[in-house]
Amino acid sequence: MRLSRLLIVTLLLFLAALPSLRAQVAGSPYAVVVPVADTSDAQRDQAFATALGQVLTRVAGGQDLRGNAGYGDALGKAASMVRKFQYQRAATGLVLEVEFEPGSVRRLVSKLGVQSAGIKPPVLLLVQGADGHLLDQSALASLAAAAAARGTNVVYPDGNPPDPARLAAADPAALVAVNRQYHTGLVLLGQLRDGGADWTLVSGGQAQRWSGQGASADVLLGDAGNGLVDRLGKQLNVIGAGPSEGKLWVSGLDSAMDYANLVATLQDDPSVRQVQTLGAQNDGVLLYVKASVPISALAANLAAGGHLLLQGEPHAGADANLRWLK
Questions:
Q1: Residues of 244-262 as b/e, b for ≥16 C-beta within 10 angstroms?
Q2: Structure letter (DSSP) for residue 129
Q3: Cα-flanking dihedrals φ and ψ of residue 281, to 5°?
Q4: What are 193's strand-pairing partners?
Q5: How would DSSP label each residue in 69-137?
């Protein structure tokens, strides 16, 4: 069967089924949904290139790779890394869902000369409209699209959403619940009002706040998506020129199992090269860590990554501090 005929059959089948787009791509950093004008070869190839650019940013931990040598050539060969794709209808028109082969993407990121701090977790969106009710994912489409275009995934609350006030106050129990339910330490809280909005980004228990103005809700939400990525980038996308080393203090360890889980978490992080225990006191442990990122950036990434860790209080002799959550 010729490719053009296969595309038509695929299009008809999936337009008839109309499954949920976000349900299929949620949780995979290698899958992207991009808008297309039609099913032509030119549109499909452009969509593949756009999708690969977003995926590369995700897998590189949010870094902007556009200035790296070989980036443009890589986008031109995006089709060779596609694992599967399908056309679907969305509220905004025709879209193409693209999933790339993970190993090929990771090899490309390495070839582009990137030292990744690891794939960032998704951001949980808890945005209230002017009436105080949480907005659903269709209402937040412009925010999600702006974030996705720059390599940041989002997730939405289920039928029993967490309390925004408790999260804004960095309540440990609320943060633990988000870690376990959504596997992230990143939450964007928003409150729309007439002509403006107030935003709070909670990352690993630390809050950043800002306000925005716009002529419409879509403008406000789109600006918020870009503001979210900008702030995450400044906090989490800190890449060192070479290996960094330092001392990390972690408190809240009540058992040998807590300690073992902490060490396993550190060893599983792609930016960590070496971990060594230097000492312990009460419920805390002092670790020597060698990593591809500065120790403060490593701590921020771990706290944001859904690992039951929060950034902790300063401790004598430590370059960065974390608290293990129960």
A1: bebbbbbbbbeeeebbeeb
A2: -
A3: -150, 125
A4: 196
A5: TTHHHHHHTGGGGEEEEEEEEETTEEEEEEEE-HHHHHHHHHHTT-----PPPPEEEEEE-TTSPBP-T
Quote the pLDDT of residue 239: 55
Question: What is the enclosing helix (H) or strand (E) of 51?
Answer: helix 41-59
Per-block average pLDDT, block size 10, for the chain (326 residues)? Answer: 37 37 53 92 95 87 82 94 93 89 87 71 93 92 88 88 92 90 93 94 91 92 93 71 83 94 90 92 95 87 86 90 90
The model carries a pTM of 0.69
Q: Hey, which residues does 207 pair with through a beta bridge?
A: 202
Q: Residue with structure tokens 């390495």?
A: 110
Q: Rounded CA gap, 271 and 273, in Å?
A: 6
* Dist CA 178 CA 173 (whole Å): 9
Both tokens assigned to 156: 């939405």
